[in-house]
Amino acid sequence: MANLYSEFLQEILSETSELRALLVSKDWDAIHSVIHNIKGLSANFRITDIRAAAEGAQKALATRNYTDIESSLHHLFVITEGASKEIAQYFNQRDLAV
Predict the structure, then answer these.
(1) pLDDT digit string (tens) for 11-36?
(2) Where is the HPt domain (predicted)?
(3) Residue 65 has what pLDDT?
(4) Does 47 map to a domain?
(5) For a Cys staple, 60 with which of 6, 33, 68, 70, CB 3.0–4.6 Å?
(6) Residue 98 binned pLDDT confidence (cut-offs 50, 70, 90)
(7) With helix as H, strand as E and coil as C, how does the chain read?
(8) What is the distance between the terminal CA atoms of the chain, rounded to a whole angstrom?
(9) Domains identified in the chain, total number
């Protein structure tokens, strides 16, 4: 199971890194695609806080209110970083590498 979560962490960090770069370029279509990927990835692992934050970002993106979008994406970044740390800590406490 640690291997699966290791892959999840790598993927989610890659997706959020890409999302940060896309936010700079304001490529809204690509941002939508990455948010969709994050939402699906987190749903597959039942990580509901990331999924909810991604869903919130999707809703903000649909309104094209760019202030709300940036705020929602910042929230997604914070939630993702926190969840990633918690997952890594969980496995590290059990002497399992992730």
Answers:
(1) 999 999 999 999 999 999 999 999 99
(2) 1-90
(3) 86
(4) yes
(5) 68
(6) confident
(7) CHHHHHHHHHHHHHHHHHHHHHHHHCCHHHHHHHHHHHHHHHHHCCCHHHHHHHHHHHHHHHHCCHHHHHHHHHHHHHHHHHHHHHHHHHHHHCCCCC
(8) 10
(9) 1
Q: How far apart are CA 23 and CA 69, in angstroms?
A: 9
Whether residue 98 lies inside any domain: the answer is no
Look-up of token digits 């941002």: 31
CATH number of the structural domain spanning residue 33: 1.20.120.160
Segments forming the whole domain that contains residue 61: 2-93
CA 5 to chain centre: 14
Counted residue by residue, the chain has a size of: 98
